[in-house]
Amino acid sequence: MDVLDIARWQFGITTVYHFLMVPLTIGLGLLVAVMHTMWVRTDKPEWLRMTRFWGRVYLINFVLGVATGLVQEFQFGLAWSEYSRFVGDVFGSLLAMEALLAFFLESTFLGLWIFGWGRIPKKVHLAALWAAVLGSVVSAYFIIAANSWMQHPVGVVMDGDAPRLTSIGAVLTNNTAIAAFSHAVVAALTVAGALLVGIGLWHLRRRRLAGLSPDDVDHRVWHRSVRLGGWVSLAAFLAVALTGDWQGKLMYQQQPLKMSSAEALCETEAPASFSVFAFGKLGSNECDDVHSFTVPYVLSYLAHGDFSTAVPGVNELQERYAEVYGATYPDDPDRFGDLAGEPVDYSPVLAVTYWGFRLMIGMGVLSAGVGAYALWATRKGRVPTSKVGVYGSLLAVGAPFVGNAAGWVFTEMGRQPFVVVPNPDVPVDEQIWFFTAQAVSPGVTAAEVWTSLSVLTLVYGVLAVIEFGLLAHFVRRGVTSGDGAPTPGGPPGGSPDDDTPGGRDADDDVLSFAY
């Protein structure tokens, strides 16, 4: 493998690893803020215990997310210096705003929330949590705005051999960014909803097998967690479908080859059919040897909002791109390495885009199905006893994680061979694009990138063990009952209903794992 391939693997692995934590931080943070709000409004102990328990899970994930996120920015200088030079004028402002505004907002107010229990007024304490959570959301918007600029560059003009920012407002209001952000936030809620459902059902069944009372506060903690998670899962799935449809229509306008590849649509069709299942040489990108079971008319609607408009196929788009952007890479070995002068394949890997798109959708449907099962199984105060249903729901916690990761792999792999995709909304002579082949650092060797990839993989493996160990410990521990008696696997302790520093056991502190 050459430097380009290894660098792409490194960035892909570390980014997907980091992104596993991002949706949980955003989605669960919002739900913990809702739980805390309900406790302040109602003063019911179950809402406080829900806030404390799910707050621990949120904080563990937040800490690991920050640690792994820092690596992404180092990689820009390590393996992608040419890319950094090209996008620096745009990304510099966005990443600065993300760090100085959003990150400091969430880290400062999260500290107030962690150490403010019983030390500051309840409503101020609640406001600190909301500020931290909204800081995470704003942080995500800046990052998505930067990524969306790569998908649809706006607000810039070419100045020499690099784009110069002319309108930060255009970058922040990029329709690609707004659509991607709305899709990402509601997808994050599917992750949080699945987590509440899976863990809540497991604890309910565990309590029932232990013969514990269904009338105590702890039972209400898990029952309400499951109900909240179920409704969030269903509502978020509906929102994911609506925002995904919006995002898909934009992609057909801005990156038609990505979406046609996602359907393995080789030839232009009018009306176009949606592929349910494809077989053939997807992995080799030989589009003419791919065959599909299809549903007529549906793809035309997904692309254009009607049932008759033509959708261009991969072969036609490949020819169109080659005519506009060049059939071969420039013959410049210093910038393009071994690809200098070679033909450009504008089609992304069909197997990745096709199955990544369907994996994203399939995991979303599965998550919604589990949410519906949870609501049915816990209706009118019932407690599910089915081992298959409960443990299946616990395993299905991973479904929205996989769906989120598959969606980002599809988005990023689908824009190849570009790292900055040309904007079709402007004349060709004003378009800005950048090939991935010219984005890698010219002075870095394959051995150096292999070394960094190996080290990062080892470190990330250790961090994964730590995170799962902490999460498993606190999930098994559960919550403590109001009289100090432990739930199965839970510790003894003082009353968690008491919000004063002297009235709670130190082990019940929301950040006790960090002390």
What topology does this entry show?
Layout: H1 3-19, H2 22-42, H3 45-78, H4 81-115, H5 122-151, E1 156-159, E2 162-165, H6 168-172, H7 175-209, H8 217-254, H9 256-262, E3 274-280, E4 290-295, H10 298-304, H11 314-325, H12 333-336, H13 350-377, H14 387-395, H15 398-413, E5 418-420, E6 434-435, H16 446-477
Antiparallel strand pairs: 1-2, 3-4, 5-6
Distance between the termini: 45 Å
- The best one-word shape is globular
Biggest sheet features: 2 strands, antiparallel
What ranges have pLDDT less than 50 throughout 5 or more consecutive residues?
Answer: 481-515
Would you mind describing this structure in some detail?
The chain is mainly α and 515 residues long. The chain has one domain (3-255, 351-465). 64% of the residues lie in helices and 5% in strands. It is built from 16 helices and six strands. The chain has helices spanning 3-19, 22-42, 45-78, 81-115, 122-151, 168-172, 175-209, 217-254, 256-262, 298-304, 314-325, 333-336, 350-377, 387-395, 398-413, 446-477; strands at 156-159, 162-165, 274-280, 290-295, 418-420, 434-435. Strands 1-2 form a two-stranded antiparallel ribbon. It has a two-stranded antiparallel sheet with strand order 3-4. Strands 5-6 form a two-stranded antiparallel sheet. A hairpin with a 2-residue loop joins β1 (156-159) and β2. α1 (3-19) runs parallel beside α16 (446-477), α2 (22-42) crosses α7 and α4 runs antiparallel to α5. The chain is globular, with a radius of gyration of 25 Å. Mean pLDDT is 86; it is low at 481-515.
